[in-house]
């Protein structure tokens, strides 16, 4: 029997060859939102390395949706064309690829990290940021509160981004609804102080995300998987902070609206205590959501060894294991994990001398 980590998983019409996923990681290498040679090599090498699913870095649905002027985008046709060869190469290696659609909201308009990641005002190449409420999220500036008309425009921009993702050939779409970005700014009362239909109660605060899911489902093929990344908890002692029980409740609604997978990350407005951070520290969020809702879940957070990853699947704690920094250190982690766990490897023929296709003794 194959180790659990290397068992296939079907999500609608998409079959993943294993349970290993490349987590989204910003590269800050996309002037005008365009991907290029860096992304072909960066994402392509992980596909060569045997990953089951690649989720791209957060990809903005509008210029104002970026965190920096160097983030990827899907708001025009030139960006669709730029993504196509990257998508094709990943798929030619036997991997699947999802685009993570995103809007930074009130956390946007920053300089490149190499330049200090400070807030960029409009007169320095930035833009006016907008959020659920006029609440500072970076301690550097205060965004404007979105009007209801602007919210409807945002939903339409996400739907158009989803259409472009289909045109570019992506296998699936993920919505980034965590880490303090736009959707999180609405569903967490830490950032949402609205008094209209998009604020106040839990049901009102989750409306933007649910309406966006509905708009995307209406324009993509029925067979195309739709994923959502949530911040399962706010890492805050405030009584009105977002808690795991809220994520369970939201996941049930997302499932009803056609979401297939929820990745349970955490934080965005505040960080956990250092004593809380360690190997597998965010896995209980995915485990709880999976147990309470039955939805497919992805686990994240300092997962660094093949045995850790395999145990998560074997023990039913999650359905997918997302790796970030470990894949930066080792693009061939899946092939190495197969050798360690005794799974049949499937390295490209060009690399066969380093990763024999037979099972290790």
Automatic annotation (TrEMBL):
<dbReference type="Pfam" id="PF00724">
    <property type="entry name" value="Oxidored_FMN"/>
</dbReference>
<dbReference type="InterPro" id="IPR001155">
    <property type="entry name" value="OxRdtase_FMN_N"/>
</dbReference>
<dbReference type="InterPro" id="IPR013785">
    <property type="entry name" value="Aldolase_TIM"/>
</dbReference>
<keyword id="KW-0288">FMN</keyword>
<keyword id="KW-0560">Oxidoreductase</keyword>
<dbReference type="InterPro" id="IPR044152">
    <property type="entry name" value="YqjM-like"/>
</dbReference>
<keyword id="KW-0285">Flavoprotein</keyword>
<protein>
    <submittedName>
        <fullName>NADH:flavin oxidoreductase/NADH oxidase</fullName>
    </submittedName>
</protein>
<keyword id="KW-0521">NADP</keyword>
<feature type="domain" description="NADH:flavin oxidoreductase/NADH oxidase N-terminal">
    <location>
        <begin position="5"/>
        <end position="338"/>
    </location>
</feature>
């Amino acid at each position: 029997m194959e180790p659990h980590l290397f068992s296939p998983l079907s999500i609608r019409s998409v079959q993943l060859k294993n349970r290993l996923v490349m987590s989204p990681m910003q590269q800050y290498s996309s002037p005008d939102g365009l991907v290029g040679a860096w992304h072909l090599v960066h994402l392509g090498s992980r596909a060569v390395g045997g990953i089951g699913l690649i989720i791209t870095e957060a990809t903005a649905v509008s210029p104002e949706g970026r965190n920096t002027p160097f983030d990827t985008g899907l708001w025009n046709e030139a960006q669709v064309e730029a993504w196509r060869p990257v998508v094709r190469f990943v798929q030619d290696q036997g991997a699947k690829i999802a685009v993570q659609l995103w809007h930074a909201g009130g956390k946007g308009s920053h300089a490149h990290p190499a330049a200090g990641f400070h807030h960029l005002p409009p007169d320095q190449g930035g833009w006016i940021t907008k959020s659920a409420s006029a609440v500072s999220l970076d301690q550097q500036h205060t965004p404007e509160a979105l009007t209801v008309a602007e919210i409807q425009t945002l939903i339409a921009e996400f739907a158009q981004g989803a259409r472009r993702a289909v045109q570019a050939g992506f296998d699936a779409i993920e919505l980034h609804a965590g880490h303090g970005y736009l959707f999180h700014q609405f569903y967490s009362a830490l950032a949402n102080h609205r008094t209209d239909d998009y604020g106040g109660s839990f049901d009102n605060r989750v409306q933007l995300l649910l309406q966006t899911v509905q708009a995307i489902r209406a324009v993509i093929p029925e067979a195309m998987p739709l994923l959502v990344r949530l911040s399962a908890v706010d890492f805050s002692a405030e009584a009105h902070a977002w808690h795991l029980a809220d994520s369970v409740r939201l996941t049930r609604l997302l499932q009803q609206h056609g979401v297939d997978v929820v990745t349970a990350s955490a934080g965005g407005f505040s960080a956990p205590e250092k004593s809380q951070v360690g190997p597998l520290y965010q896995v209980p969020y995915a485990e709880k959501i999976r147990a309470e809702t039955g939805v497919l879940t992805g686990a994240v957070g300092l997962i660094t060894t093949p045995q850790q990853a395999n145990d998560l699947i074997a023990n039913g704690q999650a359905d997918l294991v997302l790796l970030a920094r470990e894949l930066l250190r080792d693009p061939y982690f899946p092939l190495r994990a197969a050798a360690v766990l005794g799974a049949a490897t499937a390295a490209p023929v060009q690399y066969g001398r380093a990763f024999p296709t037979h099972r290790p003794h």
